[in-house]
Amino acid sequence: MCAKASMDEFEALLKESFEIDTPEEGSVVKGRVIAIEAGQAIIDVGYKMEGRVDLKEFANPGEAPSINVGDEVEVYLDRVENARGEAVISRDKARREEAWDRLEKAYANETRVEGAIFGRVKGGFTVDLGGAVAFLPGSQVDVRPVRDAGPLMGIKQPFQILKMDRRRGNIVVSRRAILEESRAEQRAEVIANLSEGQTVEGVVKNITEYGAFVDLGGVDGLLHVTDMAWRRVNHPSEILSIGETVKVQVIKINKETHRISLGMKQLQSDPWDAVERAYPLGSVHKGRVTNITDYGAFVELEAGVEGLVHVSEMSWTKKNVHPGKIVSTSQEVDVMVLEIDSAKRRVSLGLKQTQRNPWEVFAETHPVGTAIEGEVKNITEFGLFIGLENDIDGMVHLSDLSWDQRGEDAIQNYRKGDVVKAAVTEVDIEKERISLSIKALGDDTFTEAVDGVKRGSVITVAVTAIEEGGIEVDYNGMKSFIRRSDLARDRQDQRPERFQVGDKVDARVTNVDSKTRRLGLSIKAREIAEEKEAVEQYGSSDSGASLGDILGAALKGADRG
């Protein structure tokens, strides 16, 4: 009877054991820690199964394991039984499965998840999200590049999931998105408390070529280089340094883009308010050259007030020279105020006006007729340019080179560098011209030779050459030519060969040309004039006397006289 009862109990227990479902491999099951030994936790997962898990699987990255006998934990069942008859279980895989379920919900709802950075990999960092490992790209660590991520390691902090793929086991997260969101909220709050025209304090965070970014307590404003000072600022680092606390004025706020424009110079008085009073037209002031361009030089009269010396106002004499050849940066110069346009904030200055006009000085010190000496600077088709004092030139026209030679011939006698003497004939200050004459210093042989000779005079000349067209004659060293038709009144006597070299003949002056330096002479004109005079004095053609009688009487009268 007892044997039968025992048998029935055994069958019932066997049947009961068969009816109990064995847990499915690849699922998460609950278990209880029954012992800890050799760095492992022995866990009873029920179903008459036990398994072992390394203690490190119960520790968060960078922390010591926290597990005790009796603790109830969830583990992942890899296999029901291994070679030792134990269940193959994993706490990591259980955490991972639980984490993926949680993270997928967070990704779908776009909510933040908590994690800790625990390792560095190529291109970024690894983050533990409570069992699942995610990748944090270097660009997503902070809003600005992070040089040292050490202080961020092992600290639990929020992250935003950017992308995840459970099948491939990939998760990409961002810390920057959280910071930007917080920053945007903070920025909106700060901007809401700012107003245009308000004066605030900030810290210089960054300096660029065009300005500086100033932190106003969670939001940055741009302080442009042109709004730092009334004077010219070549680079922001001239007056600012990173970390410096500065007082600025809010110039403009863009509520949509959250951009803030700041100014420092607006907190100072504008020097242009007093420019017209401080710098009257025609007044001379000292200034410092701040910038040189192709068209002139900028001169600072005081901090915030600059004027332009145009290239045309830099020198009386250097017309086609680059401004950099006349002045240099940082040089102190005297300038005259020529024009002020306060509306456009422009001052026109003159450099040459602070010195006397060299043409005026020359006119005062060298009246017309003054002899000068200078070097031939240039030779052109119309004359010579002579270098004079104070870097000015005078010109000797072709017609003023020689009394005796044509200008085109006389200019061949000169070379660049020759030192010549000349007389001042004219100074035109307005046109900046000085006319000189070399021949004026020499003797005018023609004027001397013909002194007292007028048109109609009868002079005695010496024959120097016989030519087919007439004869060449000399009068006090001046050569003239009497044409064949002017050799006699009667055509038969108009023969050059009837004269000989050395003969003295009387001729009437028909023209005195100082320009060509020629005397016009005619024997024929003299004979006609003598005949006319004789007729008027001794008779007329109506008296019946012949011309021979009249001339004979005239000659006798002349002999008696």
UniProtKB/TrEMBL annotation:
Record keyword Glycoprotein present: no
GO MF annotations, alphabetized: mRNA binding; structural constituent of ribosome
Keywords carried by this UniProt record: Repeat, Ribonucleoprotein, Ribosomal protein, RNA-binding
Domain S1 motif: 26-92, 110-176, 197-265, 282-352, 369-439, 456-524
Pfam family, one: S1
InterPro entries cross-referenced by the UniProt entry: NA-bd_OB-fold, Ribos_protein_bS1-like, Ribosomal_bS1, Ribosomal_protein_S1-like, S1_domain
Top-level taxonomic group: Bacteria
Free-text function comment from the UniProt entry: Binds mRNA; thus facilitating recognition of the initiation point. It is needed to translate mRNA with a short Shine-Dalgarno (SD) purine-rich sequence.
NCBIfam families membership: PRK06299.1-2 (NF004952), PRK06299.1-5 (NF004955), rpsA (TIGR00717)
Family affiliation: Belongs to the bacterial ribosomal protein bS1 family.
Protein name: 30S ribosomal protein S1
Organism from which the protein derives: Gemmobacter lutimaris
